[in-house]
Specification:
This is Putative motility protein. The chain has 66 residues and is mainly α. It has a domain of 25 residues. The protein is 64% helix and 0% strand. The termini are far apart.
């Protein structure tokens, strides 16, 4: 290998590392945005109102022997 080939290979490896670093940074930013969007959607869900017509003990146990 001549000197120019080694220099070109070194530059190529450095460019690949930089591209991967940028790709990882963009991926992390996208995940952060998705996480904040999901949290906002979950917080936007209205609370389920309690039904005043039902006794308080209903729905507190699950029959697993059926």
């Amino acid at each position: 290998m001549d000197v120019s080939g080694i220099a070109q290979l070194s530059t190529s490896i450095a460019d690949t590392g930089t591209k991967q670093a940028v790709g990882v940074a963009v991926l992390k930013k996208a995940q952060d945005i998705q996480a904040s969007s999901a949290a906002a959607l979950i917080e936007a869900i209205p609370p389920v109102p309690a039904s005043p017509n039902l006794p308080s003990h209903l729905g507190s146990r699950i029959n697993t022997t059926a």
